[in-house]
């Protein structure tokens, strides 16, 4: 199993090594063509709630609390069992990449989600 994260703006052309590509942002990344993104899935419901996203504002100082709040949202998310199953199945067949749009590549929801999946045994 292999779950990686990747900034969607970093390289719009998908790498053949990406495998199954899932956008995990609640909002579509500005300036990215839906055709050129070549997504397999866009799971808006897995991204942080609008209130949490706005509160965080990608402020690194708020990241520890953002992480706690986002994990709580993931735990309560009724879509999580289906998402976990999808990622488990796809990662058993090949790599999975969680795509995100944030400029900060170390303080964002994809990092938290990747860690969350690892805790669930999906690495």
TrEMBL record:
Source species taxonomy: Bacteria, Bacillati, Bacillota, Bacilli, Lactobacillales
Family annotation (PANTHER family): CYTOPLASMIC PROTEIN, CYTOPLASMIC PROTEIN-RELATED
One Pfam family hit: DUF488-N3i
The protein, known as: Uroporphyrin-III c-methyltransferase
Top-level division of the source organism's lineage: Bacteria
